[in-house]
Design brief:
Blueprint (H helix, E strand, L loop, with lengths): L2 H17 L2 H19 L3 H34 L2 H35 L1 H35 L4 E3 L5 E3 L2 H5 L2 H32 L3 H37 L1 H8 L5 E2 L3 E8 L4 E8 L2 H7 L5 E2 L14 H30 L7 H9 L2 H18 L2 E3 L3 E2 L10 H32 L5 H15 L1
Antiparallel strand pairs: 1-2, 3-6, 4-5, 7-8
């Protein structure tokens, strides 16, 4: 492999691993606010749920910080030419993320975890709200950075090739950023909701922590259903429309649409054949791609072959499969949460073991879907590191050899393996212990035990 390929592989590895943690903390921060608000209205079990899930948040937050630091160093070590030419732009949002958002989130996380007695119930709610705002503000600045790379705005290009920021307002209100941000945050809410529902289902299947388990499952299912629907429409469709408008070659590759057609079909299943530029074994819905793209069943949709080959995404099959995995899992999320919601409405969810098992097994799927969504965005932007301005091959560091990158990549892999083992051990310990015990449940268990002895 050439040095460029290893640079890309290392960054893909580190950012994919890192993103496992922000996608749960950003969504979980919102759900913590809901639990705290319910506690203030007299729901004691929601208060115990809040304290348990705040611990989970704290562990995931720490993992996100540890795994996020190396990525910023890689801008200088692995992508020096990219940083030199674009640092005046992306440095703004990355700095704002650290100065404004990260410190807001980190500062009030202490009060959320340890300062409840110090600040009182309403102060504790305020801490939860500020942690949520900090995490979502952090997400916005990061998405603005990525959105500028997808759709650069508010800049001027100097004679020396260095890109200068012309309008901070244009950077922060980039239409690509707004739509990508909403879709990303909804994805994080889906992840957190499924984690809540899955862990709650695990407790219900074991017959422990019943009150908190029910609160977790109910909130996870209801919020998960709404978020899953919104992720598909309107946020997913709006994001797809942005891609079709500003990155048409990417859109065609995502859909496996190789040739221009009227009344273009949307492909549900198929395998891209790059030799014949066709899809093998396709299952299509006639006219649906035309309708979703241009709101007309007979609209012409340009195919990938309409664009120069050197502007095609580098890996069309991987892009195609990433997009369809994300979309397919999103459909699964809607179906599963709808089924669980119907059971909840009928008062049967907590005893419906097949549904509880399904919720438990589904916990990893949102992580896979969000990762596939990130891969869709990043693979789709190729061969550009800044779309239309700077090619990826012109952005990596020339004085860092492939061997050097392989050495550091293997080091990251070993370190992250140790971190993963530590994280899994902590999570198993937390989930095994569960929330603080409810004296009423303890009394009921003791009475049941005495009756069995008698």
């Amino acid at each position: 492999m050439e040095a460029l390929d290893v640079h890309r592989l290392q960054f893909a590895f580190t950012i994919t691993y890192h993103y496992l943690f922000p996608q749960i903390t950003m969504g979980l921060a919102l759900l913590l606010v809901v639990f705290k608000a319910r506690e203030l209205r007299g729901d004691e079990a929601s208060g115990r749920a809040l304290r348990f899930w705040a611990k989970v948040f704290g562990v995931c937050f720490a993992m996100g910080v540890v795994t996020g630091i190396p990525m910023e160093f890689q801008f200088g070590t692995n992508w020096a030419r990219f940083s030199e030419r674009t640092g005046n732009v992306i440095g703004q949002t990355l700095a704002m993320e650290g100065v404004f958002a990260f410190f807001l989130e980190a500062s009030f996380l202490y009060f959320l975890l340890y300062g409840e007695k110090l600040v009182g119930p309403r102060g504790h709610l305020a801490a939860a709200v500020l942690v949520w705002l900090g995490s979502w503000l952090s997400g916005y600045f990061i998405v603005c950075t990525n959105a500028w790379m997808q759709h650069p705005v508010g800049y001027t290009l100097g004679d020396d090739g260095v890109i200068q920021l012309e309008s901070i307002g244009a950077l922060l209100t980039n239409p690509w950023a707004v739509r990508q941000y909403v879709h990303t945050m909804i994805g994080s809410v889906i992840t957190a909701s499924f984690v809540l529902a899955g862990v709650g289902a695990f407790w219900l299947l074991r017959g422990v922590h019943q009150a908190v388990a029910r609160r977790s499952v109910a909130l996870g299912v209801l919020v998960g259903f709404v978020a899953s629907v919104v992720a598909a429409f309107p946020t997913g469709s709006m994001q797809a429309h942005m891609v079709s408008e500003h990155q048409p070659a990417t859109f065609a590759a995502m859909e496996g649409h190789f040739h221009t057609e009227d009344r273009a079909a949307m492909v549900l299943i198929g395998q891209p054949n790059m030799e014949t530029l066709t899809l093998d074994n396709p299952i299509r819905i006639p006219g649906m791609l035309s309708f979703l793209t241009f709101q007309r069943w007979d609209a012409e949709v340009p195919g990938l072959t309409e664009y120069p080959r050197d502007e095609w995404p580098d890996n069309v099959p991987l892009l195609y499969f990433s997009y369809h995995i994300m979309a397919g899992l999103g459909t699964l999320f809607i179906a599963l949460t709808a089924l669980a919601g119907i059971a909840w409405k009928r008062g049967r969810l907590y005893g419906a073991r097949p549904i509880l098992w399904a919720l438990l097994v589904a916990v990893p799927f949102p992580f896979i879907a969000n990762t596939a969504g990130w891969m869709t965005a990043e693979l789709g932007r190729q061969p550009w590191i800044v779309h239309g301005l700077l090619r990826t091959e012109d952005g990596h560091s020339l004085n860092v050899s492939a061997g050097n990158v392989w050495f550091s990549l293997l080091g990251f892999a070993g370190l992250y393996s140790l971190l993963s083992a530590l994280f899994v051990a902590l999570m198993l310990r937390l989930i095994g212990r569960g929330p603080a015990p409810d004296p009423r449940e303890d009394d009921a268990a003791e009475l049941a035990a005495r009756s069995e002895v008698a």
